[in-house]
Amino acid sequence: MKKVLDTVSKSPDYILLTENKKQPYIVEVKYRAHIDKDQILSIAEQIVKNWETSYIFLISKDGFYFSPVHTIINKGGDVEPLSTNWIRQEIQDKYKKLAEDWLWSHKDTQSEKGQNLK
To answer: What is the value of pTM for the model shown?
Structure first.
């Protein structure tokens, strides 16, 4: 039973498919009030152990970030801003405002340090 629970707890948040259903994107979503490169690196190193070709989508007060875990590891914890090729800037701005209004206004979703929201 423990093995099953461990497997489920390590499963990705989302598996996204391209329109032609040929390219899956395994995505782990993280919320951070402030980006800590060492913490993001640690998360990427843990994720890659189970999901070799996965991505991290990071929502922070500074905006949205999206990178393959291997890129994050190779860059020492740097995660790239979400490209407007993925999501147009006006859409990102709209949802950044929503994140600011919702996520960071609810203290019960924050850790003791007020940084980690997930």
So the answer is: 0.78
